[in-house]
Amino acid sequence: MLVGPFRTARGRLQALSRCRRSGFAILGRAAIPQRRYAKKEIRCAEVGFFPDCEGVMRGEDEEEVMAAAAEHGRIAHGMTDADFTEENVQIIRSHIRDQ
């Protein structure tokens, strides 16, 4: 038997529907935020600076991908802020593609 807001089958379906529409998934009785699917990605090897790297960065939009790429460059390749010149940023940005 269901209790609380899920007392009836119809009420449960309505609550599930509301959670799904608002970007939440049901886990037991708690609603947890769903991870949105990435829509853009970039592969480190395709950029050309590090052709042997298997790093893939994904994000909802271009800015998320660029932030992930900058973090990857710093952590995996030891890049610094000086390495992210306007020219390099444009090269990296040009390799972002839709999934």
Question: What does it look like?
Answer:
The chain has 99 residues and is α+β, with helices and mostly antiparallel strands. It has two domains: 4-33, no CATH class; 40-98. 42% of the residues lie in helices and 18% in strands. It has helices at residues 9-21, 44-47, 62-77, 86-94; strands at residues 24-27, 30-33, 40-43, 56-59, 97-98. The N and C termini lie far apart (43 Å). Residues 1-32 have low confidence and may be disordered.
Structure described in brief:
With 99 residues, the protein is α+β, with helices and mostly antiparallel strands.
Main sheet specs? 3 strands, antiparallel
As residue ranges, the low-confidence spans are 1-32
Distance between the termini: 43 Å
The rough form would be described as globular
Count up the domains: 2
Strand-residue proportion:
15-25%
In the sheet with the most strands, the strands line up as: 4-3-5
* Rg over CA atoms: 21 Å
| Secondary-structure class | alpha+beta
- Proportion in helices: 40-55%
The number of distinct β-strands equals 5
Order of helices and strands: HEEEHEHHE
Descriptive labels:
3-stranded antiparallel beta sheet; globular; alpha+beta; about 40% helix; about 100 residues; about 20% strand
Outline the secondary-structure elements:
Elements: H1 9-21, E1 24-27, E2 30-33, E3 40-43, H2 44-47, E4 56-59, H3 62-77, H4 86-94, E5 97-98
Antiparallel strand pairs: 1-2, 3-4, 3-5
